[in-house]
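Hi team,

As requested, here is the filled-out complex form for the calcium ion run. I kept the field names the same as last time so the parser does not choke. Let me know if anything looks off before we queue the next batch.

— J.
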Amino acid sequence: TQLLCKAGDRGSDCAPLVPPPLPQASLEELAQALTRKEFVPYFQPKVAMQTGHLKGVEALVRWNHPERGLLAPAHFIDTLEGHPLMADFTIDMVQQVLERILDWQSHGLPPLTVSVNLSADNLADRSFIDRLIAQISASGVKPASLVWEVTETSVMRQLSQALTNMGRLRLMGFGLAMDDFGIGYSSMQQFARCPFTELKIDRAFVNGAAQWPNRHMVLKSALDLGQSLGVATVAEGVETVEDWKLLRDLGCDMAQGYLLAKPMPAEDLVGWIRQDRR
Ligand code: C2E
Ligand code: CA
Ligand code: CA
Ligand code: CA
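And here is what came back:
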């Protein structure tokens, strides 16, 4: 039971999915950047499609490079994968996210859930999960304020450890999202074994969907799967009103994408929210 498309599938239903890799920063540079606190989270809103209300934000890392300016994760995230630095990197991101959550609370904003991406290494690493749980307990931020985003590829790489760790996180009350849904190899059976609270449909299926009627059925079946498992569905990469309307009419719960807002620095989010509510 293959869902949607295989990675690398270039059929007419599927946009090209894997762009060529960018030149990567070296590990030494990344270790130094971490020490110098050059990694910062940007935040992208996620809204309910029926009401337009803000439901949460996703934290997306940017490297504030002293010479090259703001760098997207495509320039460096692959280098961190498979290296112990990835654990420290994620802990640093989470720490900044926790500080922002407390800061937004003090601005009197309604409680926001923040989604944070975990790497395959993170997800399979028991001692990392221990650190993460201790860190959040110490912060006083409620687990329900955080959603961990993991891809099916990460889950499948070390399935039994990933399942154990996902179970621990869910039991503590954290949300758990399957990211990039549709581009990997998971079967419905495997998906159903994971305690997800949210299913994020990959941008490759969302972007331009209104122009491709033959994609509507795969979108619909992904949304139906989410619904039948009782998890919230999120469309990633919504850029046009046409795609927004299509996804909403197909029953998608939430949307994230440039149509609403690009990822922005934490300082801008409070203003964006206030403007949005006017
Ligand atoms: P992702 O988790 O699938 O994040 C969504 C990506 O789509 C983000 O790219 C976001 O900026 C982009 N995006 C959102 N809306 C739109 C849209 O309407 N159109 C288009 N074209 N793009 C849109 P970004 O920020 O460059 O991040 C790329 C990937 O890097 C993320 O994909 C995630 O896999 C990884 N990543 C980002 N931050 C972290 C992090 O803190 N930790 C880890 N492990 N991975 C991260
Ligand atoms: Ca994500
Ligand atoms: Ca995604
Ligand atoms: Ca992605």
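Two things worth flagging: The pocket of calcium ion (ligand 2) is lined by residues 58, 117, 149, 179 (CB under 6 Å). The first helix runs from residue 27 to 35.

Thanks,
J.
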